[in-house]
Each structure stands twice: as structure tokens, then as C-alpha cells.
Design the sequence.
């Protein structure tokens, strides 16, 4: 259902909507758009800042806020027209849609701390609706399509997951007892962890393939990209063990931790609270300002924008996403290890698609593998209570399905889960 907010949604260049009537339309309204897009006091033009923060995602926002709180003259530079980076929410006809990172819980320690700080830790909504319509799980794999009860699908997934993570005979506890100290701690040697760290999720699935049914294998092959954004061939198995550790070494808490609770007003409302707090304390900023180069010379770091402006700082906090780093010139060059990581590139190519479906589909869940979509969730009523918000996820579909070029295929993909 729609929620009221103290923020005003303005049009961003990001995101798209598609209808048969209007086709593909670019731009979505969001609380994250900042107007005016630039706020630098005339007296500070050309100054040497104590710190320049590049990027207005959560990391950059928190860094900028904490710097100005500590009394540092700080400039925030962001390429987009909004805050939030890859975690943002859009407002469409009174309904909030999470366009990036969606669910929150206490397992997201730093994010939850921000929710506490701004008084919204209890202001959450839930994806699952008790007694929602179409309360079943569509499983469409190589063995055919059928409907399972939510209990049946949960039991199947739980059994496969327990086999998947039980590499040490103790549900992952012996390898990953402390999820935030992965590569060595007082309870496990670095050598033990290193052996597991060599495994991809495909390697692990190959080890247990004789113990899983075809459907169970399909569930694991689809769940990994749903969780990590990359294919089983690219995602490290140790990251899966970290998730297992964070959820208390039991799949029983999976939904409560990872796919249930959302910020009621949307992620962009939280990002705005952080940003507005920082501005109140003196943060200055420039949006729609992509960076071209970062030059560190004689104790001053120069951030050169695509327009040719230079913002100099004694320190620079760089939160530029990995996928964008290859477009930035660094002088001196980044370390060999960082350049190697840039060469490997981003592994997360998860695609997120929302749909509005007529009627009550709030209880719908499903998995198709292989398929254009991995998972769908009935995600509550849209504004007005006559249609359902469907949240769906696709894996790495590069070269297979481009939603911006073939949006009409999305409807056919959703039909595999339920007639819509």
C-alpha cells in the first residue's frame, strides 16, 4: 500500500517503465534526486578541501556525513542526479519500487545502524503477505513445470542447501565461524580457509551432484546468482558460507534475514536522511558531475571532472563502483592488485524487473531454471489495492535478453510463473 513521505519525488534519468500503450519510457521519480544539483559556496570555489568524497551511494554518504561532523570542509561529487547509487527506490503511481538493494535486517549491520540513527528501524514493510492470493511456488526446471506448496518448496530448498554448505561436516561452522573475519581468525587457520576459498560454487556443486535431485540442483544453480548476482562458475563458495554463518548456520532464517523486511518509505528515503543530515552540518556537493581523472601530487589530490573542473583536496575518498573505475585515469597508477581486480571486472550482472499484475498475487513465489527470470515474489498490493507488485530477478542474461531492447519478452517470462 502507498506510504506518505516527508520527501518529494523528482524525475531521475535512471530507470525505465514499459507498457504496451507507451512502450519503453526512460526516467523514474524518486526521493533521491537532489535539487539544486550543485551547492558550493562562492567563497569555497577553487579552495583546497579537507576531503573530497566521490560517489553518493551509502558508503560515500556516510563518509561525507562523518567528515563534516568531524569539522572537515568536505565536498561530495556524484555522477548521477540522485543519491543512493545502486540502492534506490522509485515512486510510480503511488507505489514504491526498490530498484536495487531491497531487503534489510540486523544482519546488515552498518545499514541497520543507519536505520536506528534516523529512527526508522521499526518503520518497515514485508514482502510476504500472510494469506495472500496465489500462495504457492511455481517450479519450472528441465523436468517440467509444476506447482508446489510454499512448505514443499521450502523443504526441498532447505534439504539441498544443507548438503551444499556442509563442506566441513558441521554446516560450515568449522570454516566460517566468524562471518566478518573470513580469511583467518583465532578459530580457524588461514590454510584451511584458503583451501575452501579456491572453490567456486560450481566446484562445490560438482562435489555433491550425486546427492541432489535434478530439481534440487536447479534450485541451487538459480539461488546462487539470486544471492550473489554472478553465475555458479564465477561466485566463490566461501561467500556462500559467509551467508550461512550470518543466518545462524540454518536455512530456517533465510527469509527473515534476506528476503522479508523493507524500508517502508524506500531505500532512497534513508539515503536522503543521511544526505540531508550532512548538508545541515555543512556538506557541499555537485551532482551530475562525472569524474575523469584523479591526480595525487605534492600532497594535494586533484579530482578532474568530465567538464574540466578541478576540485582539490588534502584527502579523497573514492567510492566509484568497480565497473566505472576503468574509465578513470589515476596518477600515480593504482596498485597492480587493484588493476588486476579492475581487469577481472564486476561479476554481478543481476537484472531486476518489477511488474504490476491485476488481482491478488501477493502469495506467489517461483523459480524458473533455466529461464529468462530466476525468481519472482508477490510483493504486496500496489496503490489502490486492486493489483499486485511483482518483484523478479534475472541472472546474467547478457547476450540473451536485454530488457531495454526486448521489453515485450519480459511478459512472456513472467507467464511461466503464473498467468498475468
Sequence:
Amino acid at each position: 500500500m502507498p506510504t506518505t513521505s516527508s520527501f518529494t519525488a523528482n524525475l531521475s534519468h535512471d530507470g525505465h517503465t514499459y507498457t504496451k500503450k507507451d512502450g519503453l519510457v526512460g526516467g523514474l521519480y524518486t526521493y533521491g534526486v537532489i535539487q539544486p544539483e550543485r551547492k558550493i559556496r562562492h567563497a569555497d570555489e577553487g579552495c583546497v578541501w579537507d576531503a573530497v568524497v566521490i560517489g553518493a551511494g551509502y558508503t560515500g554518504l556516510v563518509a561525507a556525513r562523518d567528515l563534516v561532523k568531524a569539522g572537515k570542509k568536505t565536498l561530495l561529487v556524484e555522477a548521477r542526479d540522485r543519491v543512493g547509487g545502486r540502492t534506490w527506490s522509485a515512486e510510480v503511481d503511488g507505489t514504491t519500487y526498490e530498484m536495487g538493494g531491497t531487503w534489510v535486517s540486523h544482519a546488515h549491520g552498518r545499514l541497520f545502524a543507519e536505520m536506528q540513527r534516523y529512527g526508522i528501524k521499526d518503520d518497515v514493510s514485508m514482502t510476504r503477505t500472510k494469506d495472500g492470493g496465489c500462495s504457492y511456488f511455481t517450479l519450472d526446471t528441465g523436468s517440467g513445470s509444476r506447482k508446489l506448496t510454499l512448505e514443499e518448496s521450502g523443504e526441498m530448498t532447505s534439504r539441498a542447501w544443507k548438503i551444499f554448505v556442509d563442506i566441513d561436516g558441521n554446516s560450515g561452522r568449522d570454516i566460517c565461524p566468524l562471518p566478518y573475519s573470513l580469511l583467518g581468525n583465532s578459530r580457524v587457520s588461514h590454510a584451511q580457509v584458503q583451501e575452501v576459498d579456491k572453490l567456486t560454487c560450481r566446484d562445490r556443486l560438482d562435489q555433491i551432484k550425486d546427492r541432489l535431485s535434478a530439481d534440487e540442483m536447479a534450485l541451487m544453480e538459480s539461488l546462487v546468482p539470486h544471492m550473489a548476482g554472478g553465475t555458479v562458475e564465477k561466485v566463490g563458495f566461501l561467500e556462500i558460507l559467509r551467508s550461512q554463518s550470518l543466518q545462524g548456520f540454518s536455512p530456517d532464517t533465510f527469509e527473515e534475514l534476506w528476503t522479508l523486511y523493507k524500508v517502508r518509505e524506500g531505500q532512497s528515503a534513508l539515503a536522503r536522511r543521511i544526505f540531508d543530515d550532512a548538508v545541515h552540518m555543512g556538506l557541499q556537493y555537485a551532482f551530475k558531475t562525472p569524474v575523469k581523472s584523479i591526480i595525487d601530487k605534492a600532497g594535494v589530490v586533484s579530482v578532474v571532472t568530465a567538464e574540466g573542473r578541478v576540485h582539490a583536496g588534502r584527502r579523497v575518498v573514492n567510492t566509484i563502483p568497480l565497473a566505472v573505475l576503468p574509465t578513470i585515469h589515476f596518477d600515480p597508477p593504482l596498485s597492480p592488485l587493484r588493476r588486476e581486480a579492475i581487469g577481472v571486472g564486476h561479476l554481478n550482472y543481476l537484472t531486476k524487473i518489477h511488474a504490476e499484475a491485476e488481482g491478488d498475487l501477493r502469495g506467489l513465489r517461483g523459480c524458473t531454471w533455466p529461464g529468462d527470470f530466476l525468481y519472482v515474489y508477490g510483493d504486496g498490493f500496489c496503490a489502490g489495492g486492486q493489483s499486485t507488485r511483482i518483484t523478479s530477478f534475472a541472472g546474467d542474461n547478457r547476450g540473451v535478453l536485454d530488457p531495454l531492447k526486448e521489453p515485450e519478452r519480459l511478459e512472456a517470462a513472467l507467464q511461466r510463473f503464473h498467468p498475468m
